[in-house]
Amino acid sequence: MARARGVDLRKQGSGNIGATNAMRVLGKPAGLSVLFLDAFKGYAAVHWLPGLNQALETGHGAVPEWVPLVAGIAAVLGHNYTIWLRFHGGKGIATTAGVYAALAPWPLLLAVGVFVAMVALTRYVSLGSIAAAVALPLAVCLMCPGNPSLKWVTIALGVMAVVKHRSNLGRLLAGTENRLGQKKTGSS
Fold first, then answer.
1. Distance between CA atoms of 5 and 33, rounded to whole angstroms?
2. What is the DSSP string of 112-148?
3. Rounded distance, CA 104 to CA 49, Å?
4. Which of 69, 118, 126, 183 has its CA at 20 to 30 Å from residue 94's CA atom?
């Protein structure tokens, strides 16, 4: 989105390539497009594996249960540490949401509710993202108790998301984090 407009998001706003910075720098339509495409990337990585749909629907098939988890992890890691940007990337929130839209939609819905509520209350997208990154593993533990692999992968992705937001946490504590709708001053 940014390159099509001659903009390098890594040098604008917060320097993050994610949807929040894209929205601040490029506007709402472009930011929402980035959000959708990042989420779709995660969903597609898990949902369109060869044979996965049949295996998930019937409980039988050639795709072992761990394969979609590995595909989801790969999508998030590829987003967060992309080789095309020298292993720098986004924070993985939208891509993780796409992965969980395919793997665990009900826990995702709860985490999205937490995100929306937190952003509505505080107008901090980063705080909403961090809250969702904590809520998703809790929701998976409560709603998918028979799937320990999903639980541990979700905990690991949640921890990674919080760690990727460490600079935001510092700005939140310092009172310098940008709120939704506020012009950029160096946060994402």
1. 14
2. HHHHHHHHHHH--HHHHHHHHHHHHHHHHHHH-TT-H
3. 16
4. 183
Q: Quick check: 132 and 114 in contact, CB under 8 A?
A: yes
Residues sharing a CB contact under 8 Å with residue 119, sequence separation 6 or more, in sequence order: 125, 127, 128, 180
- Averaged pLDDT, 38-66: 75
In this predicted structure, the answer to whether residue 186 has a pLDDT above a threshold of 70 is no
Q: What is the pTM assigned to this prediction?
A: 0.86
Listed in sequence order, the residues at least 6 apart from 48 whose beta carbon sits closer than 8 Å to its beta carbon are none
DSSP 28-62: HHHHHHHHHHHHHHHHHHHHTSTTHHHHHHHS-SS
Query: Is residue 66 within 8 Å of residue 53, measured between CB atoms?
Result: no
Crossing angle, helix 105-122 and helix 93-103, to 10 degrees? Answer: 150
Radius of gyration of the chain (CA): 17
Mean pLDDT computed over 138-159: 95
Q: Where are the domains of the chain?
A: 3-174
